[in-house]
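Example record for the data management plan.
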Amino acid sequence: MFNEVYDVIVVGAGHAGSEAAAAAANMGSKTLLITMNLQNIAQMSCNPAMGGIAKGQIVREIDALGGYSGIVSDTSAIQFKMLNKSKGPAMWSPRVQSDRMRFAEDWRLMLENTPNLDFYQEMVSGLIIENHKVVGVKTSLGIEVRGKSVVLTNGTFLNGLIHIGDKNFGGGRAGERAATGITEELVQLGFESGRMKTGTPPRVDGRSLDYSKMIVQPGDEVPEKFSYSDITKPLTVQRDCHMTYTSPLVHDLLRDGFERSPMFNGRIQSTGPRYCPSIEDKINRFADKDRHQLFVEPEGWNTVEVYVNGFSTSLPEDVQFKALRSVAGFENVKFFRPGYAIEYDYFPPTQLKHTLETKLVDGLYFAGQINGTTGYEEAASQGFMAGINAALKVQEREEFILKRSEAYIGVLIDDLITKGTEEPYRMFTSRAEYRTLLRQDNADFRLTPKGYELGLASEKRLRRMEEKHSKSEAFVDFFRETSVSPEDINPILESNNSAEVNQSGKLFKIFSRPNISMDDVRKIEAVENYIQDHNLDKEIIEQTEIQVKYSGYIDKEKNNADKLNRLENVKIPSNFDYSKLKSMSIEARQKLEKIRPVTISQASRISGVSPSDVSVLLVHMGR
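Corresponding structural encoding:
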């Protein structure tokens, strides 16, 4: 049936698998995407949204490199918001509310239009491994498919167990069976596995809600978009979301069900996501709070199905229903389906290299929730990187790794393989020490040249980025070189309660003041004339403002990153014998032996390895 040998076989077609398959195929590798249900490609299993704090930066990075997530987010968006606009640009994060059905459909159509990509629907139950190298997969029907590399993106399906109150049953998500066989085989091969938990809220009938009792949450007045490409356009019409609150009565009704909750009666043993807790976890951990926000999110342009964000729960369905009916606006709510929790197998990611290839089996890659992460965006970026590296390995090209100073994707992967994770990992801006460099607005500057070299970003994209870069750099130079007189600038300074000047000075210095905006300096004729004469668009104007106002911070972070990258260049031999380092702490020796860092910089980030341990390592390496 499968006579040919594939270059890359991708198992699972969620966000990670979809990006992995697209990347490998677009790089010219003969690729097979095999999944349990082809109708559920890129399914939004939980909330119908993409992006958010730090996650929006990841989507922009995937897009800048030539992945699909940003384009699909734009084509299926029903609302756009730039979060954290009241803070500095390092914190700005784009987010879209998505049409769930259109999102999956657009993904499938893009994949079907991708050359070199085949599809097959069946459960993969095992791997074919010869001499510590993966050479294919086995399906539940006994079919063997040969491949030079395999990317596992199993999501929550590996031995998935769904909990609703005191009921539980096998499943990868509502209405779909769990995947079996792979975990047991990997453990036999020597892999360490664990269990994690995540949850989802009830879906309800929007026709049964009273929105007049809720607070409207509209999109941005002037919406932007995710993709840097010109094939998508910003929204001109948007759908509102709404917000309401729980109450002490709601909390009491939920507490009444705690003894039947799998979270509290011992049925669920595994760890859930700290930053996306269930409603029962919230009222238990934050007993002093008498209310919690609930975001009421439409699932699409035309459907009446609504997602109750903030009400994730595994309580019995009767308790969910009774408590939710006591929320303002939900008095007559009708359920489409109750919320549930799901437990699933994962593999601690310290067992991986930076390429996401496993250390134990050559040519085998893990991406997404199998690595202990949570979130579509984190999964998509891992799948994208695993697909790229699987293709590069087969093509005998150099591996592709992003540094922590180059991308949030680099931070994510380095955190996972160096520190591991005890709970579902979620990306935050605070995890990135160089977040001023890793802004959502400059992902194309940082990454599109790399995407072009890989064969993923088109030449048209590269030229578009180069034009944006050169125009914004020239506009910054204009501010550095152009002087302004006190007569022209003082009225503007006075209206902004900023200290006036008594002699001419460079516009750059004036513009650098925190309370002076681009709108203010555009009142100066020379500035507005420059914008009109050079036909500068909104992106270039915004980029210039950031470069001027944050130049000090940006330069400082660049210097820090350069210092760190010197340590990144100090490689540790792969066969280094850590047992010789008797003057190092036992904990540090054990951690270094287990993780086997590639560089001194990575070694310094391992929990339990102190600066003095790093010094010992450098001495023994003759540095």
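Summary line stored alongside the record: The longest strand covers residues 77-83.
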